[in-house]
Amino acid sequence: MAKYKLIAATGCATGIAHTYMAQEALEQSAKKMGVTIKVETHGQTGVDDPLTQEEIDGASGVIIASDVDVDADRFVGKKLIRVPVAKGISESDKLVDRILHDPQVSSYKSGSVKEKAQSASKAGSKNGNTFWNSIYVSLMNGVSHMLPFVVAGGVLMAISFFGGINSADPKSSEYNYFAFLLNTIGSSTMNLMVPVLCAFIAEAISKRSGMVVGFATGMIAFTNGTGFLGAIVGGYLAGYTVVLLQHILKPLPDKLFRGLKAIFLYPVLGVFISGMIMWFISLPMKDLNVGMMNFLKGMENSSPIILGLIIGIMCASDFGGPINKAAYLTGTALLAQGNFYFMAGVSAACIAPPLATGFAVLFNPKAYSSTERSAGYVNFLLGSTHITEGAIPFAAKNPLLNIPSFMIGSSIAAILTYVTKIQVPAPHGGFIILPLVNHPFLWVLWILIGSVISGALLALIAGRQAKKHAVATDAGTFDILTGENTEDAEVSETEQTAVTNTEEVESFDPGEILTLKNIQLGVRASTRDEVLQYLANFAVENGLAKDSKKVLGKYLKREAEGSTGMQDGIAIPHAQDATIKTSAMLVLKLDKPVEWKTFDGKPIDTVISFLIPENDSGSHLKYLSNTAKLLTHSDFVKALRNAKSKEEILDLIQQQ
Questions:
Q1: CATH classification for the domain delimited by 6-129, as one of 1.10.3880.10, 1.10.260.40, 3.40.50.2300, 3.40.50.300
Q2: Using an 8 Å Cβ cutoff, are 346 and 327 in contact?
Q3: In angstroms, rounded to a whole number, what is the distance separating the alpha carbons of residues 546 and 520?
Q4: pLDDT digits (tens, 9 = 90+) for 132-182
Q5: Does residue 329 contact residue 365 with C-beta atoms inside 8 Å?
Q6: What distance in Å separates the CA atoms of residue 650 and residue 16, rounded to the nearest whole number?
Q7: Per DSSP, what are the bridge partners of residue 586?
Q8: d(CA 24, CA 32)
Q9: Which one-letter DSSP state was computed for residue 175?
Q10: Contact at 8 Å (CB) between 488 and 387?
């Protein structure tokens, strides 16, 4: 069994994007610091790569970057840092450095949630284990478990309307039994929203006993009509009721009473106490819930513009986070009451941001790296299926300007949807559920208008940032795969994708496509373009390509997209063309440095170039990524610069 220096766990409310972005960020940070790590992910499909007891025992530290509950009792005695999943993405380097070197990171101690929260608020807040963070994590745990019920039930209910809006009503002329059956199954599943949300909030606070009490309390909340507000209050009530019972019954020795506590005392006393309290607070909770719903319903008729503005801002503020989810939960609650108007605006506001990124890269492709462009194109698909998280990397790149741009487009889409009284009877699915929308083409048009406006704003901002950072500075970072400068972002999902690609390509050794005759020393050139011309001619002379003009054209086109100048005097130009016969690597040493846009602003005197045939399955990116990885090692760069002969260069690259 492999042993890991560090172990980690990541998770987010939806279990789609943030979970795996945090995993990738932590793995890359650990790699940079030369330590091994295994990350357990808590995604929508369950727990992947679960940590074994042997792996836990062998680790020196634990990082939990999660918005959902992760069983921390497994890590008793281990140095532990617990933070929201967003920090696992944006502060991965800091987290790995702290868990390795910060003596103030304390060992995790077992105890009740209340005891943990109290100790955390006193001395452990630096580790991220604050009381408010535990409140947030428990809420997100409830939301993440609730969402599949909402989606499954809502979609089945929506399908039941295919035969007509009243097809499930036995009293209607549109009635048919299959629609009635679908609607009954779907509505029953939707009704589980309140007890499931309540149960898993409680489960995050006090484990299985809390979940039992939470289900019972949630059913009381549902029966008394308190809605999801009652579910949230009931979840915390149930969870901390069990915590209180754990404290009161602590004098009873576990060896004799552990089973009795878990099976009898906690559930019976917990359900009685929490259930009684929920019963008596249900009336004011119901009035509050009904009042809020009526207020929102009223705004659809009296102030659809204000409502659309609010919903647009909420949905585009954190792209699937708690603010976005608040709007979504309100929509699902109203949907269960037969209000199909509110969810239409919420869905429009959630679909617009990822589509906007696709339009942005179409409007101004030169302002984005190739990986960002790919992510933008993929977001057309993600947005069309109501997955807002695809916009996160673009928002993180320049949040102060990009997030308001997303809000504008989402608000416009929501406002137009509410003004035209569009109905969407399903809580998820995006454009897949268009047959169920009363004005499908109009709804899509409003979403596209909002997306295009946001996309234009994003493209304009990206263009200005690209000009500002045309020559990289300390304020920016350099994309080693594309040779383009990008502004320093917290963590870009597209960058993570690029790094992931490099991890999968260990077998693409650049030394395999380098020969002695493809290395040239003392090359005379005074400009970048002269170097590229030399490379094109050199390729034809060595029988690697047929047409030097076309190869040169591809070199120049690549440089126009973004400079391939790296740092430490090295550039990695590359060309892909039908006239190139086979993949090859060329290395030039110049007799004097030439000016080239580089990360450190210094001229180039060493060129590593790649020639790639047109019918290439992506191997050029794999060779490039492995070479770029080599260039991050100072010992390799130093040896390459000091090499005086072709043989030394060939041996150096092949040995790597």
A1: 3.40.50.2300
A2: yes
A3: 20
A4: 667 777 887 887 787 678 767 767 876 776 776 677 888 888 888 898 998
A5: no
A6: 44
A7: 609
A8: 12
A9: -
A10: no
The structure tokens listed for 611 are 């020639």
pTM of the model: 0.49
CATH class entry, domain 510-655:
alpha beta
Full 3-state SS string of 325-371? HHHHHHHHHHHHCCCCHHHHHHHHHHHHHHHHHHHHHHHCHHHCCHH
Cβ contacts of 458 within 8 Å, gap of 6 or more: 356, 357, 359, 360, 394, 402, 405, 406
Q: How many CB atoms lie within 10 A of CB 487?
A: 16
Looking at the chain, the domain(s) classified CATH 3.40.50.2300 span 6-129
Please list the residues that pair with 585 across neighbouring strands: 610
313 closest CA partner among 292, 296, 327, 293? 327
Residue among 402, 408, 404, 411 nearest 372 (CA): 402
Query: What is the enclosing helix (H) or strand (E) of 92?
Result: helix 92-101
**Structure-block tokens of residue 387:** 């997955």
- Per-residue pLDDT tens over the stretch 480-533: 333 344 443 333 333 343 333 333 334 445 556 788 888 999 999 989 999 999
- Among all residues, which ones are annotated catalytic? 12
Percent of the chain predicted with pLDDT > 90 = 24
Residue type, 103: P
Residue 290 reports pLDDT greater than 50: yes
Pick 226 or 407 by higher pLDDT: 407
| Dihedrals phi, psi of 577, to nearest 5 degrees | -155, 155
Q: Where in the chain is the domain with CATH 3.40.930.10?
A: 510-655
Residues ≥6 apart with Cβ < 8 Å to 259: none
Residue-averaged pLDDT of the chain: 79
pLDDT band at 332 (very low <50, low <70, confident <90, very high): confident
pLDDT at 655 (0 to 100): 72
CA distances from 113 to 118, 130, 210, 274, 386 (A): 8, 11, 11, 17, 35
Q: How would you list the strands of the sheet with 6-11, edge to edge?
A: 46-48, 37-43, 6-11, 61-66, 79-83
Contact by Cβ (8 Å): 318, 416: no
DSSP code, position 161: G
3-state SS string for 530-596: HHHHHHHHHHHHCCCECCHHHHHHHHHHHHHHCCCECCCCEECCEEEECCECCCEEEEEEEEEEECC
Among 80-94, 122-136, 451-465, 505-519, the range scoring the smallest mean pLDDT is 122-136
Q: pLDDT category, 320, cuts 50, 70, 90?
A: low
The CA distances from residue 30 to 39, 93, 99, 168, 501, in Å, are 11, 8, 11, 56, 17
User: CA 456 → CA 315, 353, 356, 460, distances in Å?
Assistant: 19, 12, 8, 6
pLDDT (tens digit per residue) in 577-626: 888 888 888 999 998 999 988 767 789 899 988 888 876 555 555 666 56
C-beta of residue 569 within 8 angstroms of C-beta of residue 637: no
Q: Which of 40-54, 123-137, 180-194, 301-315 has the lowest mean pLDDT?
A: 123-137
